[in-house]
Structure formats: structure tokens, C-alpha cells
Known about the structure:
By secondary structure, this protein is α/β, with parallel strands linked by helices. The protein is globular and about 55 Å long. Helix content is 41%, strand content 10%. The two termini are 29 Å apart. It has a 6-stranded parallel β-sheet with strand order 3-2-1-4-5-6, sandwiched between helices. The protein contains 9 helices and 6 strands; from the N terminus they run βαααααβαβαβαββα.
Amino acid sequence: MTSTVPALGTRTAEGSALQAVLLDMDGTLVDTEGFWWDVETEVFASLGHTLDDSWRHVVVGGPMTRSAGFLIEATGADITLAELSVLLNDGFEQLIGRDLPLMPGAARLLAELSAHEIPTALVSASHRRIIDRVLKSLGPQHFALTVAGDEVPRTKPHPDPYLAAAAGLGVDPARCAVVEDTATGVAAAEAAGCHVVAVPSVAPITPAVRRTVVASLEEVDLTFLRGLMTQMR
């Protein structure tokens, strides 16, 4: 877990229940979920296996141990989890060696949160080496804290990453708004006790208590997040 700028603690706008915003990375801020599937397809093709497109919904948004383990079992590929993880990370890092496409509304939302000094964390199941590369496109100055999947005891769908982010920022998870794009990430945020805004990328997500579903980040701004927290208290 790495702090990229000094943590801003519990400072919030007067009258707002919102203490911090915690953001997923792949598929939420950057349009990379398809990149992961492309790399997985290419790696398994080199091993002599073709991936079934229906498996994409199984592996999206999950930790590499889960997604890679599933693909090994599903294909019967002769490769260890550790070996496959290296190949996938290497392949993905090659794809993101240039500016990444941000999701619609992402740049505007990050700029708004920074302008209002809202404590913001990037919370991803991706490994540190990947996060640090993606931060070049997102702008590290927008985040008080970044949490990688290989830096917590258990990654998503467990609550550990979001609990670590809240603790690192010195805020109450129940007063954090999380923005996620997959059911795995939503489960992690809800298990941590956070309010969730789901922006589905690959598979549908249904609304629920303490969970609002929107079509795009273009629908999400600071007023929306503050209003959401007030409604759900």
C-alpha cells in the first residue's frame, strides 16, 4: 500500500457526510478490462488453448489468483499459477506502455475531487507494478493513497483492500463512497461497509441497499456523491 501524496485525513466539506471517495481502476477509471481479456486470450493461444468468450464474465474484476486459476482449470493448460501470473502481467504491461483510454467522465471526476480536496484512494486488484504504470495516465496527484491487490492479505471480493484504504486515509468506511464496475469489486466494498456506486463494464449489476447503479461516470460528480451519502445514512 503506497501513499502518493500526503493523506488528507477526515477533512470534508461542511455539512457533508462524505469523508472519502475510493475508486477502482480497471474498467472504472481506465478502459482496460478488454486489455486483460486480450492478454489472457493471447497467452493461452500460445499454450495451445482457445478461451471460451463466456468465461470473460467469470474472470472480470477478480484477483489474478482467481481468474488465472479458473482459466488453468477450465483449459487444462500445463502451466503453474505463478508462471501464468508472470506472463499475464508482462503482457498487460506491454499493452499499457502508452497513454491509456480513460472511461468517459473519469478525468472530470478526478479533477473535481482534487479541486475540492476530497480524500481519494485508488483501490485495485491489480498488482503494484501495474498500478504504478496506469497512474501515469490517471495522474498520481489525484490520489492520497493507492492500494494494490498484492499488498493486502486478501484482495477483492474480500473487504481487506477497502478497509486498508479507509484506515490509511483515517476515515470511517461507512462514510466512504466507492465506485466500482464489477460484482467482485462491489462485494468487496459492501463487505467493508461502504456506500457503492456501480458503473457496470462487462456484466450487469443490479441496484440494492447502499448500492446505486449508473450507466457512466458522466452521471457521477461530487454533488451526486454527497447527496447519495445523505440519502443513505
